[in-house]
Automatic annotation (TrEMBL):
Its EC number is 2.6.1.16. It catalyses: D-fructose 6-phosphate + L-glutamine = D-glucosamine 6-phosphate + L-glutamate. It comes from Nocardioides ganghwensis. One of its GO terms (molecular function) is carbohydrate derivative binding. One of its GO terms (cellular component) is cytosol. It is found in: Cytoplasm. The keyword Translocase does not apply. It is an enzyme of class 2 (transferase). The chain holds residues 244 to 607 of 607 of the full protein. Residues 43-182, 214-354 form the SIS domain. One of its GO terms (biological process) is protein N-linked glycosylation. This is Glutamine--fructose-6-phosphate aminotransferase [isomerizing]. Keywords: Aminotransferase, Cytoplasm, Glutamine amidotransferase, Repeat, Transferase. The gene is glmS. The lineage of its organism: Bacteria, Bacillati, Actinomycetota, Actinomycetes, Propionibacteriales.
Length: 364
């Protein structure tokens, strides 16, 4: 029962401060600035032998996989990328013994992800899982893994499981980093950041009421863009995915830097853009792109940090708290969940069971 909540999706969004704690519990080591992931079944030597990381998942799990790849590359300095598990086996992929494959799945039953894991293992690769449902097919098929402890997720649109996937990747990146060159100071900085996150997620959720009008405006658009750069781009992809899944509006994610190479032609007063503009080394460049949109009267919603000054740009500002830059993507994701939710609510859609979609796709 969704209980006093109008929907499971909203209930699951609001549970995140608690469920985020559950995935971190017992896994952080403040003294050595690292994480302990016993379920991975890899010792320090195994972890040091990893030369590349390939992440496999579908839908939101694929997009959070891209966030995870960025974390691993930044913290552990290991080349990492994510690929749609649904495409992987069809290109007869080369499986390398020193690549760590990571399958990501809430249900643990998505057939495309399961078949990708089997492809890796059949060719002699090592595959670990980031899975929510204990004892599920993917969890059983993997060599080891990290359970997400988000509790049952009912709404088709993933929220709390996705957040825990991100945190699972942060733990993995931290542990991989600390057996390599990540300094203890950086390790401690990230452990402290992870410990602060559940409270900051709560802060973002507390500002839900401020977002409802913005969501209603976005719901009226037939088509909209979600844009971000580098760490922010997978966040934009996830935001667009969530929005289209439950509001049935055309929502397209783009790298902010690519706007001028094509989609700027579509910007006009009818086409809103949701832009991710964290306070980081790319803030000024991001603001440059906002000027281009503003000059064409494109309505703007900007998810940003307090200190970012948008100057003359006409935009709706949604401010989230700052954490460590590597961990900020998850705080930028939370308002996008709420925007999608309130847009769909405004349109009167069945939020938990959007048309044409299933919670887990278990047949090819
Ligand atoms: C899709 C769902 O079919 O499967 C998405 O509609 C979900 O919401 C994706 O992200 C992957 O599911 P899972 O269970 O493998 O994480």
């Amino acid at each position: 029962e969704a209980g006093e909540h109008e929907s499971y999706m909203r209930k699951e969004i609001l549970e995140q401060p608690t469920t985020a704690q559950a995935v971190l519990r017992g896994r952080l080591d403040e003294r050595f600035g690292t994480a302990h992931l016993g379920g991975l079944d890899m010792d320090a030597r195994d972890l040091r032998a990893v030369r590349r990381v390939k992440i496999l998942g579908c839908g939101s799990a694929y997009y959070v996989g891209q966030m995870g790849a960025a974390l691993i590359e930044e913290l552990a300095r290991i080349p990492a990328d994510a690929e749609a598990a649904s495409e992987f086996r069809y290109r007869d992929p080369v499986i390398e013994p020193d690549t760590l494959y990571v399958a990501v799945s809430q249900s643990g039953e998505t057939i495309d992800t399961l078949l990708a894991v089997q492809e890796v293992r059949r060719k002699g690769g090592r595959c670990v899982g980031l899975v929510n449902v204990v004892g599920s097919a993917i969890a059983r098929e993997c060599d080891g893994g990290i359970y997400l402890h988000a509790g049952p997720e009912v709404a088709v649109a993933s929220t709390k499981a996705l957040t825990n996937m991100f945190l699972g990747f942060a733990l993995l990146a931290l542990q991989l980093g600390r057996v390599r060159d990540l300094s203890i100071a950086d390790g401690k900085r990230l452990v402290a950041g992870l410990e602060r996150l559940p409270g900051q997620i709560e802060e973002v959720l507390a500002s839900e009421a401020d977002l409802v009008d913005v969501a209603k405006e976005l719901a009226e658009a037939r088509s909209l863009f979600f844009i971000g750069r580098v760490r922010g781009f997978p966040v934009a992809r996830e935001g667009a995915q969530k929005f289209k899944e439950i509001s049935y509006r055309h929502a397209e994610a783009y790298q902010t830097s690519e706007l001028k190479h094509g989609p700027l032609a579509l910007i006009d007063p009818e086409v809103p853009t949701v832009a991710l503009v964290p306070s980081d080394e790319l803030t000024e460049r991001n603001i440059g792109a906002l000027h281009e949109i503003d000059a064409r009267q494109g309505p703007l919603v900007v998810i940003t940090h307090e200190e970012v000054d948008l100057g003359e740009i006409g935009a709706r500002r949604i401010v989230v708290p700052r954490n460590e830059p590597e961990l900020d993507p998850i705080l930028l994701t939370i308002p996008l969940q709420l925007l999608a939710y309130h847009a769909a609510q405004h349109l009167g859609h069945d939020i938990d069971k959007p048309r044409n979609l299933a919670k887990s796709v278990t047949v090819e």
